[in-house]
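Model it.
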Amino acid sequence: RYADNLMKELPRIPCVKMAASFRRFSEAGRQLAELHLNYETVTPYPLQIDGVDLLSKPEDYRVTKMRYGGKTGKEKDLTSIIYNDLVVIKGIPPQAYEYVVNGKPALDWVVERQAVTTDKASGIVNDANDWAIHTMHNPKYPLELVQRIVTVSLETMKIVRELPELEI
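Modeled.
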């Protein structure tokens, strides 16, 4: 019945030898569910945000396209994100990129999606700032989301690393 799903993903509940291991996996699952379902309320990670003291108006938080900082050799600098012309986010721990969703670090998804884009076929404009202002009632939402996803990524990997060895 679930053959198609199981070809793409592992079963969700491991069949382990010890009850204590099962309880630990179960507790980790609950912690991860709590963390991932409530990501918008986790404590923002204390990143260095250059330029934020200059921001006085809601439109100063407007984001059109975030991008990673300058290049270090051939690689882009993943420790910083240029948020907009006024704000640069610095001090992103490299471990924040270890939490991967569908083959891409969660933080990459945020950097990619918190932008203003126009669909070529329909001409529909998708503006993350509209969501921030009209739905979240917080023009700082995209900036705070970066901080929160760093927290979620680090906490997720901490929980995963603490799991017992899977003995089936």
